[in-house]
Design goal:
The protein is α/β, with parallel strands linked by helices. The protein has one domain: Vaccinia Virus protein VP39 (Rossmann fold, 3-Layer(aba) Sandwich), CATH 3.40.50. It contains 12 helices and 7 strands. The longest helix has 19 residues, at about 250-270. It starts with a helix and ends with a strand. The protein binds S-adenosylmethionine. S-adenosylmethionine binds next to helix 1 and strand 2.
Length: about 280
């Protein structure tokens, strides 16, 4: 078991208002893709959604499944900018599901459930999953050598929920080099165990192994510098609201998120972490 419901709520249920202060206006809580030095975070997040929608071949009459949908940025994008007929999101977080469903977007439904045990008769033409896989395997399971089997069960479930000919736009954080100094090691451990308990960023080679025999890897894009820039932007925006955050949510919340976001900026710079986007095609 990776992050369970209680652990996911540690990561995402501090308060919707807290995250709204420092994420982009659509509340994407994942790496944006910057087209230029001048591009804003807001535009770069739309760019990311466009890339993944292209990878997933989202089309106007199509049905889209967003696995780990967060606060619904991608659901909103596919239903408005891409006019998808139906878009279903799954999240383990109650506050995210409430937020998405309250918006009453046309054709959009958000289900609060563990994706791995969720059952539905619907099948989807396009799948998108943005940094949900990072919650699936715990550090302990990875040490026991179970990571590839856990990811393969996820790709099998995705296959079972898709229609023949389906495409899948996947994004995951990656775990690369282990830090060689005590401070970085302690900070990376803090992010894994305190901010995102129960989960562990996957290794690229584990994902490439686990997609078989369900999905063909068509494209892989590496976006390490984009995530460094995204987390640097989040950190600057959060620090801009330091007084409000300390007053409303307490010193511990501000200090923990300051440590976590500063660590992310360093981790992407030092190649401890990276980010990849994958275009996958269903094997029929
Ligand atoms: C880092 S957030 C990304 C959210 C969104 N995709 C985005 O780009 O902003 C990870 C998401 O995965 C969801 N998640 C984690 N484990 C899950 C599970 N087993 N089943 C369903 N959702 C899960 C969390 O609730 C959260 O919405």
């Amino acid at each position: 078991m990776g992050s369970d419901k209680e652990q996911v709520e540690v990561s995402y249920d501090v308060s919707n208002e807290f995250f709204r202060l420092w994420l982009d206006e659509r509340m994407n809580y994942t790496c944006a893709v910057f087209e230029s030095e001048e591009q804003t975070l807001e535009a770069a997040q739309l760019n990311k959604l466009s890339i993944l929608s292209d990878f997933a071949r989202v089309r106007p009459d199509g049905k889209v499944l967003d696995i780990g949908c967060g606060w619904g940025a991608c659901l909103e994008y596919v239903s408005t900018a891409r006019a998808a007929e139906r878009a279903v999101g799954v999240t383990l977080s109650s506050s995210q599901a409430e937020e998405v469903n309250a918006r009453e977007l046309p054709g959009v439904e958000c289900v609060e459930h563990d994706f791995m045990t969720w059952e539905t008769d619907e099948k989807f033409d396009s799948l998108i999953s943005i940094c949900m896989l990072d919650h699936l395997c715990s550090p302990e399971q990875a040490r026991q050598g179970k990571a590839v089997d856990i990811y393969r069960a996820y790709f099998k479930k995705c296959w079972e929920l898709s229609n023949p000919g389906a495409h899948f736009g996947l994004q995951t954080i990656l775990r690369n080099k282990v830090p060689r100094n005590r401070k970085d090691l302690a900070d990376v451990y803090f992010c894994t165990h305190v901010i995102f308990p129960g989960g562990l960023n996957p290794r690229l080679e584990d994902i490439i192994q686990a997609v078989n025999p369900y999905w063909e890897v068509v494209t892989v894009k590496q976006r390490r510098r984009d995530y460094q820039r995204t987390t640097a932007e989040w950190l600057a925006r959060m620090r801009g609201h330091e007084t409000t955050i300390r007053d409303k949510w307490g010193d511990q919340v501000f200090d923990d998120y300051d440590r976590y976001l500063s660590t992310c900026v360093r981790a992407f710079d030092q190649f401890y972490s990276s980010l990849a986007q994958y275009e996958l095609k269903r094997l029929d």
